[in-house]
Each structure stands twice: as C-alpha cells, then as structure tokens.
Amino acid sequence: MAGLLTYFHPESLPGEAVSPPVAKGVIGMLLKFYSSVDCPGFPPGSLLICLHEQEFYRTYFDRKSNKKFATLHYFQHICTINKNKNKMTYPISFVSLGPGEPELITVKGLRQLQKADIIYCPATRNRQGEILSRAADIIRALEINETAIRCFMLPMSKDRTEAWKAYDALYNEAAANYAEGRQIVIVAEGDAGFYSSIQYIYDKFIETGIDVQRIAGIPAFIAAGALAGLHIVKQEEQIIVIPGTPSAEELSEKINAGYVIVIMKLSQCVEAVHACIRKHPQTQFHYFENVGTDKEYYTSDRQIIAEKSFPYFSLMIIQ
C-alpha cells in the first residue's frame, strides 16, 4: 500500500514554493497537503515533493523521531494523481517468446499475451527505413489482437547509449500505463533473462517498486539442439555458454578442457571460430542461423562453416 504521500508543485503554493535546494536538504514537517498521489512501492512514511512537471524526489522519515534515514532519489512517471487511486494495477509481464517459431512459446506466455492491453515489442529499421520486428511477427502469428502491439525502436550497436535511452522512454510510457490499470506485456525473443538487454528495464521497475513478473522461454540453443537432434550434454559432461567475444586462443583452451561450448552472437567471433576449426580436426562444430524461422539453417560440414560469414542471428554448439 502506498502510505502517506504529499504532492507539492512550486507554482501551486503562492509564497511557499518548494525549491530544489530545500528538497535536497533535510525536509522537516511539510506546510500543508496539496493533493494525494499514489506511487507504487513507496513504504508508509514516505513524503513526496514535486519540483517540476515530471520530476519527483522522495525521502523516508522515521515517524517517531521525524528524522530522515534515507537519501533523496529521482524518479519519472511513477506517480499518478489521486483520480487513479482506486484503480487496480497488474504486474508488468516480461514474456519470453522463444527462439522464433510461434508454437514454441509456452502456454503461460501465450495466455499472458491474450490478456494484455498493450504489448511492447522491440523493433529496428533496415537500410530502407522499414520497421522490422521479429517479436511482433511472432505475436501476429499467434493471432493476438493487432491493436495491442506497440513497437519501440531499439538501436542495434555496440555503443548501448541510444539503446538505454530507448529503454528509458519505454519505462516512462509503460509505468504510466501501469498506473492507469492497464495490463502491460514487454516481450523478448528467446528467454528474457538470457543474454537479453531487456533486463535493464526489468531491474528499473524493481528499483521503483513496480510489480513485475517474468515468464520463461526456450533459449535458441535448446531449439537448435532439437533441430539437429543433438544430445547437447550427457552424463558428467560440462557445458559453458559464452557470447561471441573469445579469441581463437581462448576458445581453443575451452575446447582442450573438454567443455561442450555454446557460442551466442556468433557474428562477433568469425575469425576465432574459423581458426579453431582448422586447429581441432576431431572436434564437432554445429552451426545454426535463424533458428525457429522459415530461414533456419543448420550444418556441421567443417568446410562450409570455415568459409561462411555469420549473420546476427547465428550460434554454434561445439562438442
């Protein structure tokens, strides 16, 4: 429950405007209540001061001593005026879509999509400026209401600055819709907790006290193993899953140590893989791309792999 919260706007209290310097100091007994607000996750005893139109600062007080015992923190779009006070809120659901084949989504994930008022899907633009979203395509194939789908642009670059900005904007919009009582779903391909940058916004909701839940999905390498009929690990074998960052030497060390190796984001280590194929003739290299789509491809032919460039949606299992 939200507890006691008080809302002030500097322009709403003539002669008694609350300035940022005052807010950043020790706040004593506030002068008067202006209007109540609800903020998800604020414990009893919280006092809220609005300094600007969309900026909120909070601090906690010990009710007995009236002393501050936590520092001020900054939030955006997590509070709503009391007109929404009686609205029911639902946890924001992070639904994992699986590797790409619509039928590989879990029943639980499908049910959550069917109930959603808004489904946020990551999207990119191609060189022609067209919006592409594999996640949205999966949802359409599941015959989910098209009007619920909202794509957000997620820049694909090693420099994640723009991606974090996109996630911050998504956080603000989703939090506002959450406060309005809408059922919100944010989707991710594969599993939302496995090499997924969507975890950034999940953690941000947790930090601001917004209820979330995550629904598991099938990772791409598990679907790849099924595609090739592989017994990925057996008996006492050990498996490691790594991103496409190893050098040829680092990858060779792992092969010599006897691990079963899964490399995600394979396009980042093309030369290292090619070098290890030449160096380890007894090792099995299983190459996959676009698993779970109509463009899926698999080969274990060493010569083909050694001459191939790897697209973004590719992975490898080394045994």
Number of helices: 9
Mean pLDDT, as a whole number? 79
CATH superfamily membership of the largest domain, which one?
A: Tetrapyrrole methylase, N-terminal domain
Largest sheet: 6 strands, mixed
Query: Which segments are poorly predicted (pLDDT under 50) over 5 or more consecutive residues?
Result: 1-84
Characterization of the model:
The protein has 319 residues and is of the alpha/beta class. It has helices spanning 20-24, 107-115, 134-141, 161-179, 199-207, 220-228, 248-256, 270-279, 302-306; strands at 37-38, 46-52, 55-60, 73-75, 80-81, 92-96, 118-125, 131-132, 149-153, 184-188, 212-215, 239-242, 260-263, 285-289, 297-299, 314-318. The chain folds into three domains: 20-84, no CATH class; 92-215, Cobalt-precorrin-4 Transmethylase, domain 1 (3-Layer(aba) Sandwich), CATH 3.40.1010; 220-318, Methyltransferase, Cobalt-precorrin-4 Transmethylase, Domain 2 (2-Layer Sandwich). Strand 2 and strand 3 form a beta hairpin. Strands 6, 7, 8, 9, 10 and 11 form a six-stranded mixed sheet that branches. The protein has a five-stranded mixed sheet with strand order 12-13-16-14-15. Strands 2-3-4 form a three-stranded antiparallel sheet, with no helix packed on it. It is elongated, with a radius of gyration of 25 Å. The chain is 26% helix and 22% strand.
